[in-house]
Amino acid sequence: MIAAATMPRKWTAAARRIGRGDMLTLSASETVNRAARFIIAVILARAVGPDDYGAWVVAAAVGVLLMTVGDLGLGTVIVTRVAAAPALLRPYVANMLAVVAVVLGVSFAAVAGGWLAGLLGPLVAMLALAGMIDSATFLVLAPLRARNDLRPEALVRGGQGIALLAVGIPVFLTADASAQALAVVFLAVSAASLAFALLALVRAAGAVAPRLRVALTCELARAASPVLAATFVAMAYFRIDALLLAAIRGEAGAGLYAAAYNVAFGATFVAVMFGRILLPRFAQAATPGALRLSYRRSVRNLSAAAGCMLVALAAAAPLIPRVYGHEYAGALPAYAWLVGAQAAFFLTHMNYTFLYARGRAVAVWWLTVGSLVLNVALNAALIRPFGPAGAGAAALATETALLAAQLWLIRAVLHDVPHADTHAGGEPLPALAA
Question: What is the pLDDT of residue 335?
Fold first, then answer.
């Protein structure tokens, strides 16, 4: 419903039906995935306590920072280019498959060779590899997103959640609450998801032999470099609070904060799904009027969704000590701040999607860097005296400042629509033979 309401009126009824179906399918699959991960997190937190759960949170945060290598920032560039020029689909897919093979080959060698585990520990190494495989999976699915086919991605997300519940919980409980055994399950599920994504791509685009084109790869990497840099900095932005809490107040503080964060930001997938659907549609808007109409409808509908989510999350506050255990009651002050930050995130994420689609990746990079610097400064000032609550207040303040900066920039973009033959980097599309 949200996606359909953001489309210009001239779009066909068939496109509207596709948008509504994709949104409902993604909503269901993401709900299953997030619910499964939440259940596993609660079981782990209750079994090991705030200190050991904080250690898992720190390991997962480091793994998330490393997982950006699996995507290389190419997914966003591929979606915007193929959406604007469908003839690029097959050559881009051939090159992308070759790049994925190289990146994953290096990643597996780093883990199998033992040097990554020796440097960061086996738990971090396994979670990092699982994250890189997940990034590669969504890179493989990028050409399908460009064609507004989100069903394979929905199946991947829903299937991951079901597999983690069906396999992860029994393994965890029979392995004496071993976090490393749980990490192995995450790794296996990620590998199976990548295999399914490859099959879905072949079914949609036909058999495509991987073909590494050095010139195209370099050109894509140059166009994607702001996306990759911004993605890495964004990952740091969302994980640095837990790392700073562990460093300043100990792993127990990180565990309390993670319990609050898991509940407050459990609705993040709604904004992420919304962005995945809107990215090609913002990119396809050819006139200032169509672009402004689509953006304003997006703001109106996503603001309504954020308001509803804010009320629901506020009402859920008493459930945290009951679900996680009474030793996590100290998470409630941080939770109050994080609920507000989650509401602001709905709009900041959509604005990032808009700026990417309209060729402002460099601007996104500077916005993200500025947000990270501000967030680190506020966390450093607030964590020591206020603990997890200080980290939550820093998150809300940073998201509010980011939203103000985005709106200032978007005012100019809404009156400057690039020509149809431009991509996320704002330069002419290269001519490629099929």
Answer: 95
